[in-house]
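Protein modeling request. Please complete all fields; requests missing the sequence field cannot be processed.
Requester role: graduate student
Desired output: 3D structure, token encoding
Chains: 1
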Amino acid sequence: MEKSDSGILVADVIPGSSASGVLKLEDIILEFGGKKVDSKGYIEHPLYGKQVLSFLAHSGDSFGYSLGKEIPMLVLRDKKKIRLSMRLKPFPYSAVRIPFKNIPASNDFAVEGGFVFLELSESLLEEWGKDWRSRVDRKLLYLYDYYKFHENEGDVGKIVLLSQVLPDESNNGFHDLSFKIVEKIDGQNVKSVRDLKRNIKQGKSDYALISLDDGTEIALDRTKLTEINERIYKSYKIRFSEN
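Delivered output (243 residues):
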């Protein structure tokens, strides 16, 4: 990289995106759409001044870079400058593991045996208030910062949390649990709240064994769960439609 060069480091490539299969981790983008990129990832727009480089990918025919067209790039890779082109694709929403606040979350939740399950999203994290980054659990913040996208194209699923426990005689000993990551049910990975509900309902054994990230294991008695749920729903005035 020459002294006169500047650019921005590629720290992540979203699977299924325009950059997937074109850019690699630790590439340095020197030029994007024929315009030099500075060390903060900005290009100089002839009308609007400094703009983040992705502006070119969203500005449509103003620069000739609309969906389906290719953006030329100059990239430093392994200490060598190479020219690449990237065909613009729609954003791959299926690659998002933790939905942004401007991407509608599923809003799926489940209350089973008093255990409240929901999916991790940016909107949920913001429930901690304006300074949520300094207040939220460190593990959830780490997931948000580094695992908001799936690693491989075709991967699916969201991060399911046990958000709280509604106290009942059936869940004594678990009342203090909150915002734990649900890893497995009956030994199988959990991919969504809907997936969790289906496995609880359709499992063949008498007990649904739910494993959390801190090592806690919860055994829900399937033979009594309907009775327990009805009691809890009535006690806490919970009403929702079952899918």
